[in-house]
Specification:
The chain is mainly α. The protein is 79% helix and 0% strand.
């Protein structure tokens, strides 16, 4: 089968856009929470999300070709995993913002570094927002390994671009939100977790 035709690339880009929407929203939330984020870190954040959006479809493709039965059983836990991870990060972000605001009210200067999104948090977010992309492994199951690899790379590139846009939008929004920015970011993460859960449990 000739995989590399115009529809192959259109479908891969469409997959990338669809799969990147949750990462896009999380990117906005992160930039809202960390408005001083430098361009180098923005590239790193988008790169982490892009990596997971590349890795998950490839992992799904490998599972389909090796342990398909066990992978199918695991799929029902995907929405729960995403919900738990994003609820944890969102609630943590809200609590930290409330505590920081209390310190500010007590005239204790807050440390800007405390608002920095850590690598550990980014990895958790990357997993939570891309874990549903495992299911793409079923969709591209008839691809050979090279076609699956290229499709996953296209998804990653699209994700990177979309997340960079999200980060830029989040930084602009943060200027208007002021001290409550992190709370808004945390709420966004919680809503994304609920959205992934509802979509995965009731509409899959």
């Amino acid at each position: 089968m000739d995989f590399f035709n115009i529809m192959f690339f259109i479908n891969s880009i469409a997959f990338g856009v669809g799969l990147a929407m949750d990462a896009f929203s999380v990117s906005i939330a992160n930039a809202i929470a960390e408005p001083q984020m430098k361009k180098s870190k923005m590239c790193g954040v988008a790169g982490i999300y892009a990596f997971f959006q590349f890795a998950m479809p490839m992992t799904g493709w490998l599972c389909v070709h090796t342990i398909a039965e066990k992978f199918t059983a695991f799929q029902k836990f995907i929405p729960w995993i995403a919900l738990i991870l994003l609820l944890y990060i969102g609630i943590k972000m809200i609590i930290e913002c409330i505590l920081e605001n209390k310190k500010a009210d007590s005239q204790i200067e807050s440390d800007p570094a405390a608002k920095s999104i850590t690598l550990g948090i980014l990895i958790i977010q990357g997993i939570a927002t891309s874990i549903d992309a495992l299911s793409v492994g079923f969709t591209i199951a008839d691809y050979n390994w090279l076609a699956a690899l290229i499709a996953s790379l296209i998804i990653a590139v699209v994700t990177f671009a979309i997340c960079m846009i999200g980060l830029l939008l989040g930084k602009k929004a943060s200027d208007k939100l002021g001290s409550g920015a992190e709370i808004v970011g945390g709420v966004i993460l919680i809503l994304i977790g609920i959205e992934i859960f509802v979509k995965g449990v009731f509409f899959s």
